[in-house]
Design goal:
Distance between the termini: 35 Å
Mean pLDDT: 86
Radius of gyration: 18 Å
Helix content: 10-25%
Length: 238
Amino acid sequence: MTPTRSSFFAILAILSLSFFSATESRRLKRISPQISSRNPSVNLDSFQVPLSNGSASLPSPTAGLSLKAITLGRGTQNYTCAAGSTALPVTIGAKADLLDATPLLPLFPSSESQAILNLLPEYLVSFDFATIKNSTIPVLGHHIFDAAGVPTFDLGSIGLLKAKKIANITAPPTACKGANGKGDGAVDWLALTDAPGSVNLKEVYRVHTAGGKPPKSCGGGAARHIEVQYASQYWFFG
């Protein structure tokens, strides 16, 4: 990727907020509470969820819904291979922490906030979980697949989304393939709507994905599970 002003700010945001020790994180939170917690002064309505990969588009959010949260997902896409299989690994779900992007937004030049935000997943995918856990970027919620295989997003007081897919498009060909730019590719962009059991949240979009695709073949051998590192944006509406 050719360095740009936007990429510089994206790198700066991730590095400056992720490499603090736990002690430094607590100190920074005392000095700069706007970095360590949700900033109510940030107008999320000024941001637009990315819908186009350059050649296809996801459907727009349902009219009447409002943007409730912009998060950065960091976790694993999970797959399984049967013994002796040489087929493509089978998807069995995902698990991710959902980092609150809101505290980062005031750090960016206003004219470039969206562009910088869109670059963050490709940098975030290269950071290990321990570094992120000790950073000043707050974890707003969690993404899992429940016992019934339903994609579930728990954002605490903001709401709970039990989701079902309504559309998907491939990630752009220039999308980050994985940690340190190496991997089998970026998972699809998704639009998901609410399923029974949801509370206060109606839709979520997974966009600007980095990594997450499995190897092209299970490769034979013993049965196994595969965890592939990924990062993405998740935009929540309710």
